[in-house]
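Inputs:
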Amino acid sequence: MPEFAAPWALVGLALIPLIRWLHHYRRQGPSVDVSAVFLWQGLRPDERGAMRTARPEAAWWRRAGIAGLVVLALADPRLPLHEAETVHVWWDHAPSMQALEQGRSRHAAAIERLLEAAAGSGVATLHLRALRGVEPPLELGATNREASRTLIEQWLDRLPPAVGGAPLPLLDPRYMHWLVSDGASADLSAWAALQPLNRVIAVGAATENIAITRLAARPAPGSNLTVAGIVLVHNAGQRSSPVELTVSTGEQIVHRVRLELAPAATVKAAFSVNTPPARLEARVRRLDGTLEPFGADDSLSLALASFAQPIPVLVNGLCPAAINRALAAHPRLVRATTSAPDAAKLQIACTDQPPSGGPPLLWLPRSQAATRLVSGDAYWLDAPPGGDARLPLGTPAQLAPPPGTDVGQAILAIARQPLAILRSDPRPAVTLLLDLDQGAFAESAAFARIFATLTDRLLGEDLLAPRAVAFRPEVMTGIAPRELGLSGAPRAAPPGRASFGFAPWLLWLAVLLLAWDLFAVMRRSSVVVTTGTR
Amino acid sequence: MTHPLAQIGGAELQGLARVADRMLAGSPLLAPGNRCHRRRAGSGLEFRDFLDFAPGDDPRNIDWRASARSSVPQVRSHYDDRAADWILCLDRSASMTIGGGRKWHLALQLAAALAYLLLDLEHRVGLVVFSGQVDDMRRPGRGRSAYAQLLRLLYALEPVSGGGASRLAACLPHIPPGSQVLVLSDFLTPDGMLPELHRLLQTADQVRGLQILDAADTALPATGPCNLQDIESYVRLATELDEHAAQAVRERLDRWRTRLARNCHDRGIAFTSSFTSSEWKMALIAHLTGRESSLA
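Outputs:
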């Protein structure tokens, strides 16, 4: 099929009726009023005598042909040398595409729709790409439909679950792009409206879905043997629905409750378990008998095997007694029974040089350099905005000078001097510049806070308030399709694509017709006109 | 330029009036001094004939002497004393302006002359001026005052310059039943207004048609390529013309006119054609005598 590089020029074809009108009403020759034109109509050949039969329509055809050819040439028609072309298919693999409708997933429906569209468009090659992520694309050539379906299904199985809010690609307007999606993702509509999409293959119709968005547990205050937990249940649909929530340990149900979920509402349910289990699972099911199209988010499990377990700490060098006291007082940290670095999850070194390897490190340099007494407030330099960055020392502390070789980011400072320096390479390490052998600062509450905070930073968790959380973003629970409109500016013709433009040929043809018309006009004006009627 | 109506002389009209009654009535008057045109039996005073008594006849009209001479009762019948109502339908459509307005001028003169003659015969005369619709009218009147009114109207009339149509049927609501109708027009429509004349005939007692033509109706308007435009319907015809084609059109008009006259005659419509080359008097006599004026 020929394509037009400038299809807007085809509007000029509207000139042809104008030419027709001009020929009909503005023919050459004077306009004469007669009392009864019916007397002059339809004279028979014998009545016309020797008059020459005029063919006024010939001029109209010639001039309409000239105008049509020029307009077509302006539209720049091109015939692709390759009959079909490559289309980039952006596949939305959001969780909602796994929703079941009429016995099959939206993915399966989309595969059928895509193959139908490709067959109907004469597309040679499909490049299937994940809408979110950088997974390798799937290239589909001229294979049969069954094979294409299998290849797409296998490719979809290899795709990791899409992460909600992951960036969407910017599409190259030089190529053809199709989008396969149910439009359930909230950010997709705005994206699609700006991208040069040529076609949207939309699937899905179901709108109702309920999901567990958070399951969290922590030791109950006052009892290390009791676990307190919460479950958040979200109704991503558009109708209210009664549901039953159950929390189980795998063997037995520890909590069961009936909840009434309003549209777009999130309900929190709290529970407690007397014996810390190895695993918790929350599950929700509808009680109104309606079908749940998307069951994958109806449950959420939480592993509690390492929940609130003691953390072994390796201590190197001759550390101050304050360190030993802090370790003994910490509810989660215990001294490692062996000196092997692999057995510990944290090491504390009180040496001249920091250890080169091992787990995350808290290093207290041992040097003979003079210390100086500081007091007042210290400040956490990387405190989050709005957080409490001030740390009153209360008791004056002996501040040691930083070692010359230590390069890192000061995270705690006092009187414009670093008090703690954080390094991330090769493993998290904090240098604590305090001489804990002098003065009473090691006995203060401020030191206990500094120690607890630094160990939390090094291990990446809140050691004093352990909790286990499994969550699912609410934005990933919506399955209601949204309209995805085209931007109206898809790519017209790929640059550099092999095609044959026959606009020059059309122009030459128009010139020939023009010459013919001029010749006819000149001939007509030069000969003796006899007579004629239509 | 003098108005065409000013060219009508009073002496000529009076001379025509003396012979017009015979021409219009078709039979002589029976009673001297009464010059009304009587054609129907009615409730007048002048005796017409004896008729056999029939149910519904007024017994007071039984003539006992005549009944005594006959085997059945005889009733007297009388001529209707009422004068006839004449309606002149004057076509002022745009086709009447072709040929420098000569057709229109002749139509005005004929209308005025006919009105004079009919009023002189003590008929009542009205005028309906039509084109695509009824443009003006005067109800039937009698005597000199009616003639003066008609003359004033005719003096004020101008033909339509372009567009419109010639729709005689528009006059129908203004034709009194039993009246006499005389249509002054060029009748230049494809059907020659024949259907409309026929409809008039269903209302009027008598319908007459006086066709006015001009040589310009068939004259060659131009030679070579030209656009012919119907002055009324604006239908255009792009054509190339020469004298041969014009001759063919003249012959076609003659055939068309002959066919129209024959169709009118078959329907009892007195129809004549006159060309503007004839004077109004000759055109009028030609119509009254039933002879057409020759082609100019």
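Remarks. DSSP finds seven helices and ten strands in chain B. Chain B has a mean pLDDT of 84.
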